[in-house]
Amino acid sequence: MNVDQETPLKSKDERIGVGFLGAGPVTQAIHLPSLARLTDLFKVSHIMDVNPAVADSVAGRVGARSSSSIDDLLADDNVEVVAICSPHQFHAEQVIAACRAGKKAVLCEKPFAVSAEEATNICKVSAETGVPVIVGAMHTFDPGWLAAEKMWGDLPETAHYIRSSIVLPPNARFEDFATEVIARPSAMPTPDYSDPSVIKARFEGMVLGLAIHDLPLVRRFVPDFDDLQVLHAAIAKPFGYSIVLRAGGRTIELLASINKSWKPDWTFEAYGPESALKVTFTPSYVQAGSAIAEFSTAGRKVVAGPLTYNGYEGEWRRIAGIIAGTDTAPAARTLIEDLSFALKIANAAGAAAIADMSPAVQPEEAHA
């Protein structure tokens, strides 16, 4: 899809009805503001949350019906697209239920499953029902990134080093810029990093919750990852990671730090022998235009962006195009392999970090 192409607009009586499973900060501070800019295409019809008071309050902001029942939302004929913004462990079951309910499309926040088996089952049901599934990896829909794809030439084949660096304040800072969040989740206690099981779970959470934003981008440069090996993995306190790995003949560095002292910076870089790409994204929750892509070769630099909308809005534009028949859904194989890549990194990074611990707290000793 051309990054500058406008999705055909619909009149108000033809707008696509959207229902949300989960009314937390992602729904409130990301998707509702995005849809507020696309009111010629979409209307919010139904807000479901297990907390009826939250569902009712959020629905009241957009004039939607509220409920605390998934079955009620799926049975609502005014809901044509289901947006799944619930905790990760419920995604697979809910995506499959939405497909079987015969909706026009499903948008699921990442990760859309927590195992390769779940992902494969989702894609099988999607194919059987004809209901497309879109995973909310917003950077893949960002027009700045789409512009980068058009100008990078053979860099995906020649790149030898890929780097994703994410420096952000706690989510609440940007959530508050976007909206007044109702019923924000409580802060988690400080983890016990002397416990190997905590470290393993922490890497799973960080890779599937944060690194996964950029891992589909990394995969454009690493289509084959059977030889994936994590060379280094460490936790950056209070929340973050440093992971260095090799896969497909490339060195990949994944860095992240979420704290209260640094200026936000979110960049993706790829370097080859004769060219380089740098894409600078806006922070999560910020609705401030697209990424800026810079592609450099000897003596020449091409810059694309910022364009008028970002990846969050891009997701919804893509859905509208799929429903209108002017665009296509991401390939099932790509979704499955992107998730498999993330899971493999999470497991290997956790194992590498545990292996670097003091012998006194190695798993065998810790459970003796």
Number of helices: 13
Number of strands: 14
Cα distance spanning the termini: 57 Å
Outline the biggest β-sheet.
Answer: 8 strands, mixed
Which percent band covers the strand fraction?
15-25%
CATH topology of the largest domain: Dihydrodipicolinate Reductase, domain 2
Tell me the number of structural domains. Answer: 2
Tell me, briefly, the overall form. globular
Class per helix and strand makeup: alpha/beta
Low-pLDDT windows of residues: 363-368
Helix content: 25-40%
In the CATH hierarchy, what is the architecture of the largest domain at level 2?
2-Layer Sandwich
Radius of gyration: 21 Å
Order of helices and strands: EHEHEHEHEHEHHEHHHEEEEEEEHHH
Could you name the CATH homologous superfamily of the largest domain?
Dihydrodipicolinate Reductase, domain 2
What is the name of the CATH class of the largest domain?
A: Alpha Beta
Mean pLDDT over the residues: 90
> In what order do the strands lie side by side in the largest sheet?
8-9-10-7-11-12-13-14
Domain Gfo/Idh/MocA-like oxidoreductase N-terminal: 17-136
GO molecular function: nucleotide binding; oxidoreductase activity
Keywords: Oxidoreductase
Pfam families: GFO_IDH_MocA
Description:
Keywords: Oxidoreductase. GO terms for molecular function: nucleotide binding; oxidoreductase activity. This is Oxidoreductase. By secondary structure, the protein is α/β, with parallel strands linked by helices. It has 2 domains: 125 residues, Rossmann fold (3-Layer(aba) Sandwich); 227 residues, 2-Layer Sandwich (Dihydrodipicolinate Reductase, domain 2), CATH 3.30.360.10. 37% of the residues lie in helices and 23% in strands. The chain has 13 helices and 14 strands. The strands form 2 sheets. It has an 8-stranded mixed β-sheet with strand order 8-9-10-7-11-12-13-14. It has a 6-stranded parallel β-sheet with strand order 3-2-1-4-5-6, with helices on both faces. α5 packs antiparallel against α12 and α9 runs antiparallel to α12. The chain starts with 15 loop residues before the first strand and ends with a helix. The C terminus is likely disordered.
